[in-house]
Amino acid sequence: MADNLTSRKQDYAQWYNDLVLKGGLAEHSDVRGCMVIKPYGFALWENMRDVLDKMFKETGHQNAYFPLFIPKSYLSKEASHVEGFAKECAVVTHYRLKNDPNGNGVIVDPEAKLEEELIVRPTSETIIWSTYKGWIQSYRDLPILVNQWANVVRWEMRTRLFLRTAEFLWQEGHTAHATKEEAIAETEQMLDVYAKFVEEYMALPVIKGVKTANERFAGAEDTYCIEALMQDGKALQAGTSHFLGQNFAKAFDVKFADKNNNVEYVWATSWGVSTRLIGALIMAHSDDEGLVMPPRIAPLQVVIVPIYNKDAEARQKIDDKANALVKELRAQGIRVKYDNDDTTRPGWKFAEYELRGVPVRIALGARDLENNVAEVARRDEKTKASVSLDGLTGHVATLLEEIQNNMYNKALSFRNENITKVDSWDAFVKTLDEKGGFVSSHWDGTPETEDKIKELTKATIRCIPLNNEQEAGACVLTGKPSTQRVLFARAY
RNA sequence: CGGGAAGUAGCGCAGGCCGGUAGCGCAUCUGGUUUGGGACCAGGGGGUCGCAGGUUCGAAUCCUGUCUUCCCGACCA
């Protein structure tokens, strides 16, 4: 059914919006560019957050919390950093309101102007490095491996639910190291953590790579990224991990004495993923019937729907069996709900849980009980099967894993089919226009050529894949010599 | 910030050109019948038509301003 959903073919952007809104994940707030994440959407984020948080801790990190506000002057201490963020910062200029003498509610009290204006963090490198200065004197204070879960604000011109909002939730890891090698290893390790999370939990294959100078984080020496492909053929950066060199240590004068009593600047990394991942999840897996959640992070993994009839006794039997199933499934750690709300009918519930992307649905009626079976439907393939009630719990647990794998494999084939090697300019443009996806082409290595290609095609270099095959070739635009292919795509 | 579209009941929309007591579908509430893919019958409730001015005897409708949202661009996680 879902006759009120826009199809992907009709209007991909509208389809995405419909899913977010009608799937109950989020809605627009009264504040421009900001969204309300609804309980179902937040449950998804919590699941993602919990898995990531565990992975961070397993790799030796601790959580901390730094302020929302950053003194304006801090941002300007690192030149390229300020250049990257200055245009999108919200600024706090006053600390008090007062009653409008003209009776129009409240106004900003002009006498409460801040001596130094505060910016609302667009990211926290500056406040954190000014803090780290006080934490680090000796090599024995290193490394510092800290993460924070926070909200940040970037005043975007144009926003889209989850993909780009003025305020968003994320985590930002900020680490400090004694050596360059150790910092680079940390950067790579966290990229691997992200890739593992996105692939194994979100069922979304990614390409690990390095950004070109144009696409690099403001203030980084190197930006590593994971890039994913959406169903409309556009790429989406799913996470980034930055090797910051000594840029912030120098900007904030953070030095340490090494074992030989030499004073050196500290090496830094930062890395983050945001609620944008939810946008990636939606656009990679969902279909024209609604959301499709990967079981491992789905807020609800299984829903049981009773098929009642007039017979009160039969109804009681269904309830009893369903409640027993819930108990068994919960004991297996499966997130399950028994929806015996009698104000909606089964067909309505089927459509509703499809829209919300619940991986497995179990329907249970009097007829099933007589035959000792249940109807088990899987969301990813939209198939139904009659399954014996004996051992149903085990069946469901296996099915959830199968759905997880199937979703990953589907996304992987799609991704692989949409990486196209292209060696001529005409084919490059044609591939972008007609097929989309990643275009693997030679590039002469200059920012000028990258800019020119972006201007002509709107495609950017998404990344230079890690462990990229070296191969002599000619730049797709300029014909100048090149040593490797890079991945171009139009991107979110 | 440029181009386009739109704001009328919780949601989706009609009405607007041609000013005259605000309507439809869904949802909601009550009662009943139902329940294997978004049930049916009967009855009920819900609106200062985004906001602020103006024109007019009278404005959802005409005029001016303003705010918000969506789409397409520029910018970006």
3D structure, described in words:
By secondary structure, the chain is of the alpha+beta class. The radius of gyration is 26 Å and the shape is globular. The strands form six sheets. Strands 3, 9, 10, 11, 12, 13, 16, 22, 23, 24, 25 and 26 form a twelve-stranded mixed sheet that branches. It has a five-stranded mixed sheet with strand order 18-17-19-20-21, sandwiched between helices. It has a three-stranded antiparallel sheet with strand order 4-8-5. It has 14 helices and 26 strands. The longest helix is centred in the C-terminal third of the chain and has 26 residues, at 392-417. The model has no long low-confidence stretch (mean pLDDT 93). It folds into three domains: 12-68 and 122-285, Bira Bifunctional Protein, Domain 2 (BirA Bifunctional Protein, domain 2, 2-Layer Sandwich); 302-399, Rossmann fold, CATH 3.40.50; 419-489, C-terminal domain of ProRS (Translation Initiation Factor IF3). The structure holds one RNA strand of 77 nucleotides.
How many individual domains? 3
Rg: 26 Å
Q: What share of residues is helical?
A: 25-40%
CATH class of the largest domain: Alpha Beta
Shape field: globular
Q: Give the mean pLDDT.
A: 93
Q: What is the CATH T-level topology of the largest domain?
A: BirA Bifunctional Protein, domain 2
Which sheet architecture does the biggest sheet show?
A: 12 strands, mixed
The CATH superfamily of the largest domain is Bira Bifunctional Protein, Domain 2
Number of strands: 26
- Stretches where pLDDT is under 50 for at least 5 consecutive residues are none
- How much strand? 25-35%
Named CATH architecture of the largest domain = 2-Layer Sandwich
> How widely separated are the two ends?
30 Å
Number of helices: 14
Structural class: alpha+beta
